[in-house]
Amino acid sequence: LAMHLRGGDGGGAAEFEGLFKQPVREANVMIAKFAEQAERFEEMMEATRTLAEMGVELTVEERSLLSVAYKNVVGAKRSSWKTLSALDARQTDPPAKELTQKYLRKVEGELSSVCEEIIALLDQYLIPKAIEAEPKVFYLKMHGDYWRYLAEVSGSDAKAAAAERALAAYKAAQELAVEHLSTTHPIRLGLALNFSVFYYEILGLPGDACALARQAFDDSCKDLDNLNEESYKDATLIMQLLRDNLTLWTADSSLAYGNSHPGNA
User: Fold this and answer.
1) N or C: which end of the chain has fewer CB within 10 A?
2) Contact (Cβ atoms closer than 8 angstroms) between residue 2 and residue 10
3) With contact defined as beta carbons under 8 Å apart, do 110 and 77 qualify?
4) How many angstroms separate the CA atoms of 245 and 210, rounded?
């Protein structure tokens, strides 16, 4: 029996060429949303990359779609890299170790490629087009995040260079955030969370990590009553993550964190 598949004559890859590079801005937003709902994040990344390359200032929705796309793609590759790193560390059989290391290098290459792509978009299009402080902090935080991810998988010299770039981006974002965003703003809190993780995991500075996280947590607790309903859920979730990290880090490093701080259970 002849099988008739939905989709007409089955024109192959050529039929879908340009699907994620729509000439109309709104069409790229639409296809990115479809891809998100279908959990096809590589294609969502393509659509949002097209948006960024249009050279326009992205709306809040558009930049959120871009962030979700790249975060999911890179997040999956980071998870794979961590799993393979653990497998490699346990290998004692030389042929097996050679295979795990080769596989690890493949994933490292893929992860690095995506990180370098979003960093280039941030440098060339997104940061220069950001006029207000909020989107600029958002993009500088992203810049720091993806340099941090590169530092995670890089060798010593490359790791130091990536860490330096991440630190510069995080510091620039922090200065703007402190000056222009409220202490309970989810972007400012998210920046403090990721910047403190960078201090702890990449630079190996638990004291600096705890100081930054504690400051952000305490300052936001003081202003919690002024938080609008729209931002409350996001802000309090990040505050809980800050508190969880502080609990973990202070237990690891024996740095004191008093029980008198606002918001403690």
Assistant:
1) N
2) no
3) yes
4) 8
Tokens of 183: 């202490």
Would you say 84 and 103 are in contact if contact means Cβ atoms under 8 Å apart? yes
Residue-wise pLDDT for 225-234, tens only, equals 777 777 788 9
**220, 243 contact by CB (below 8 A):** no
Residue 179 corresponds to which amino acid?
E
The 3 state secondary structure assigned to the chain is: CCCCCCCCCCCCHHHHCCCCCCCCHHHHHHHHHHHHHCCCHHHHHHHHHHHHHCCCCCCHHHHHHHHHHHHHHHHHHHHHHHHHHHHHHHCCCHHHHHHHHHHHHHHHHHHHHHHHHHHHHHHHHHHHHCCCHHHHHHHHHHHHHHHHHHHHHCCHHHHHHHHHHHHHHHHHHHHHHHHHCCCCCHHHHHHHHHHHHHHHHHCCCHHHHHHHHHHHHHHHHHCHHHCCHHHHHHHHHHHHHHHHHHHHHHHHHCCCCCCCCCCCC
Contact 217, 170 (CB under 8 A): no
Q: pLDDT tens across 130-186, in order? A: 999 999 999 999 999 999 999 999 988 899 999 999 999 999 999 999 999 999 999
Q: In the block, which residue shows the tokens 């510069």?
A: 168
8 A C-beta contact, residue 214 and residue 253:
no
Phi, then psi, of 255 in degrees rounded to 5: -85, 135
Cα–Cα dist 161/164, whole Å: 5
Q: What is the pTM of this model?
A: 0.88
Distance CA 195, CA 206 (A): 12
Fill in the amino acid letter for 153: V
